[in-house]
Amino acid sequence: MTPETMEKLDRFREEALARDIPTADVERWLGTLHRRATLEPQVNGPVVGRLGGPLMLPPDVPDPEYPLVASLDLAALPQDATELPLPPDGQLLLFGCPEASAWSSAAPLGSAVYIAAGTAVEERWLASATTRTSPATKRYLSFRESCD
């Protein structure tokens, strides 16, 4: 965890103990926290991906059903950023339909494609996705650690 996150947890612990909450209860609550990586369109931390941009896929990967929402550089994301078993490098492409409501359908509204580092890719132009895919310019994602 980052020093900033550790400091927040220490302040929580101190405040809870000052309110006479038993140490065992405080530690149990802290033990339920899960690390997460928050991606932000403002670059306030390390750049780990981008919103939209060109669609780069290996030649043998079928065209996605949904437009490219974001791509993540897994080598730039700290390994302990989340509790997800992510590969240490490569690209994770996230596809989805941002206009659709997750509550309106039982059908999947997106997908993900992992591309191993060093895999040959080619740019794809999809008529259904080009209007929803933003240029990569100034659309970078930065990483911020937090806990839930």
UniProtKB/TrEMBL annotation:
It comes from the Bacteria. This is DUF1963 domain-containing protein. It comes from Micromonospora cremea.
